[in-house]
Write a structure and sequence with these properties.
Oligomer: heterodimer
Number of helices of chain B: 10
Largest sheet of chain B: 8 strands, mixed
CATH class of chain A: Mainly Alpha
Order of helices and strands of chain A: EEHHHHHHHHHH
Order of helices and strands of chain B: EEEHEEEEHEHHHEHEHEEHHHEE
Shape of chain B: globular
Largest interface: A-B, 41 and 56 residues
CATH architecture of chain A: Orthogonal Bundle
Strand content of chain A: under 5%
Distance between the termini of chain B: 29 Å
Strand order of the largest sheet of chain A: 1-2
Shape of chain A: elongated
């Protein structure tokens, strides 16, 4: 057999520049994700809610003069009506606008805190694992110690020390939330670094930094994304809890957590002040968790078809 | 098969090479290092420029470790590795408690390369073919932009692949095609010495011949020196000029390929040869086979004396106590066995 004769390749799709287009593992995963009805529906729900939270308060302010913080004490708490679909709260503020504005805060906190957590966790875990030996032992003991401390307690201390601002809330939640990602990534890298492609990279003269950032971290992105999508709802829940305790977003600015807190105090009389923020929060968390599960399944190589 | 003139200066000299791995006993991060595996022990050979040395032995005999230690992908515990006159085993320095390459050893990556056994594990699944082949070029700042792409496409052509495939990912190729990509990557820096670590044992039988032929073809065209590692003799006999047989971290017999096949002297080599099936059914039926009994001893606690004595059909009393040394019995034919004088 002639060794230099090209082997027949799988059917090729040609792209405009004459090169053969490849389908990456991401494209495969995307294709599988689209087949998952629950995940797609959740994605749509999140997109709609996200857009509503992002644009809703501004649009309502421009179109109808709704202001989430404007009080009208004489108007008092009103049950849902056409003018105020979610009703109004104790101070006569429109609850729909407040829920949307609160959702904005919750989503921003959730996504940003989860991003910070993913970023710190991925780099920490990958470096720790690739360095190995004593460095790895020391770095992971730090994680163990932080893990052993009550999580919420740490956040409360951080928020108390650093003061109460929205930015610090992201940082406090993110700074404590990276532990899981660090462990997940370290475990991944432990097995990845023994693979031949890492030895091959070394044999080709690739530096340690390039091995970590070009070879190891890209291969952990699957689990990192899954951890991320499941961290977002948990961060939203944490923020709600902190706001519920009065440590998060400060009045008069709303967040889903503080709205639920207000509503819980008066739920027997003014039921709508709890049902609407709580309902929106529940729908958002459900959708985020379903999407996270969908992403996990889509990225699982055993699900490849 | 090319016959290498004896006077050709060796490109690679390996002298008394040893590789040891620490074996931690019991768990816990404070556990003391106890015991060690002598993966490679006292291995010596040389390879002339343009020559192909076959390295054969069963799983766990240290042949892959030998290959990696020769390329300094592992730091040898003892012995010398002289490549083109340079003592490359000395090109290491300690940094932060671990051994790292000196910059001249990194520069030698251009001349020392490796082909891996598993074409699925040795290519990063998240990289396109272009990124995989661009990596060595980028590491050494060779070519850039459109020149680099041209170079990559040339490499693909060299190994018999469609150069338009550069945007594709490893999982879109068959095992044989992936192995060709691995070979192209090893060739990217224009190496002199390539260690091929069981490059065909993970492939379908029908593809094995293609890859062997490709390697033989590249060796002629590019003047490569090859160390070809395999676990069966049939795979290496056609491509190798000389064959070294390893057992438990040591070379037990080394001779020109035809001599090993026709006149094996070490009982282990004889057993290996007798295990190769013959293509002719009539001769296959009458084939005399030496069946080895017992398991490969653990390299953590190797047997005393001759490492093979626990399984040797011809063992004598002295085999238990005295370690046989590799000695020349005819020019170019070395055996480590007490029974061969």
């Amino acid at each position: 057999m002639n060794a230099s004769q090209p082997e027949p390749a799988a059917p090729m799709r040609s792209s405009p520049d004459g090169l053969v287009a490849g389908s990456s593992l991401w494209q495969d995963a995307w294709r599988r994700l689209r087949k998952n009805k629950m995940a797609v529906a959740s994605g749509v729900v999140i997109a709609v809610l996200g857009l509503a939270c992002l644009l809703g308060p501004t649009l309502l302010a421009v179109a109808g003069g709704y202001d989430p913080d404007a009080q009208d004490l004489a108007y008092g708490p009103q049950p849902p009506s056409w003018q105020h679909p979610f009703g109004t709260d104790f101070y006569g503020r429109d609850l729909l606008v407040r829920v949307l504005a609160g959702g904005q805060v919750s989503l921003a906190v959730g996504i940003l805190a989860a991003l910070i957590a993913a970023l710190i966790g991925t780099i920490y875990g990958a470096v720790s694992s690739y360095a190995g030996g004593l460095v790895d032992s020391l770095l992971m003991r730090v994680v163990d110690i932080l893990y052993a401390l009550p999580y919420m307690f740490l956040v409360i201390i951080l928020v108390t020390i650093l003061g109460q601002s929205l930015v610090l809330l992201f940082v406090a939640l993110g700074a404590v939330g990276w532990l899981l990602t660090a462990r997940v990534v370290r475990g991944q890298v432990m097995s990845l670094k023994e693979q031949d492609f890492v030895l091959a990279a070394r044999s080709l003269g690739t530096s340690g930094r390039d091995i970590v950032f070009r070879h190891l971290i890209p291969n952990t992105l699957g689990p990192v994304i899954v951890t991320f999508t499941l961290t977002v709802p948990s961060m939203i829940l944490q923020e709600a809890f902190l706001s519920f305790l009065g440590l998060g977003v400060q009045p008069p600015h709303p967040s889903l957590g503080s709205l639920i807190n207000d509503g819980a105090n008066q739920m027997l009389v003014f039921w709508w002040t709890l049902v609407f923020p709580g309902g929106v929060m529940a729908v958002l968390l459900f959708a985020l968790n379903f999407l996270g599960d969908g992403v996990r399944d889509a990225l699982d190589p055993r699900m490849r078809t | 098969m090319t016959v290498v003139p004896a006077k050709a200066a060796p490109l690679l000299i390996v002298d008394d090479l040893a590789v040891r791995f620490p074996v931690p006993r019991a768990g816990g991060w404070l556990a003391q290092r106890q015991g060690e595996v002598r993966a490679v022990d006292g291995v010596s050979f040389s390879v002339a420029k343009g020559e192909t040395l076959g390295l054969v032995g069963e799983s766990g005999c240290g042949k892959s470790t030998t290959g990696r230690a020769v390329l300094q992908l592992l730091r040898p515990a003892a012995g010398k590795v002289i490549f083109d006159g340079e003592p490359i085993h000395e090109y290491w320095r300690r940094q932060g408690g671990r051994w790292v390459w000196e910059s001249r050893l990194r520069d030698l990556r251009k001349r020392l390369q490796m082909i891996f056994q598993d074409p699925f594990a040795s290519l990063n699944p998240r990289m396109t073919v272009e990124a995989i082949l661009a990596e060595p070029l980028r590491n050494f700042g060779i070519a850039a932009g459109s020149q680099r792409r041209e170079r990559i496409q040339q490499l693909l052509q060299t190994v018999g692949m469609d150069p338009r495939a550069i945007r594709r990912y490893p999982h879109e190729f068959s095992g044989g095609q992936r192995q060709r990509i691995g070979i192209a990557r090893a060739l990217a820096l224009g190496p002199d010495l390539i260690v091929a670590d069981e490059p065909i044992s993970a492939l379908d039988v029908s593809i094995q011949a293609q890859i062997i032929n490709l390697l033989a073809d590249l060796r002629e065209r590019l003047g490569l020196t090859l160390i070809f590692i395999a676990h069966d003799l049939a795979a290496v006999r056609h491509i190798s000029d000389r064959i070294a047989v390893m057992y438990l971290g040591r070379i037990v017999e080394m001779a020109p390929a035809q001599t090993i096949i026709d006149q094996p002297r070490h009982p282990y080599t004889q057993a290996l040869i007798s295990a190769v099936p013959l293509p002719d059914p009539a001769r296959e039926r009458s084939r005399q086979r030496t069946i080895l009994t017992g398991e490969l001893p653990s390299p953590v606690s190797p047997p005393s004396g001759c490492p093979f004595h626990t399984r040797c059909p011809l063992r004598e009393e002295r085999c238990r106590h005295d370690v046989p040394v590799l000695q020349q019995i005819t020019p170019g034919h070395q055996v480590a066995c007490h029974l061969v004088e």
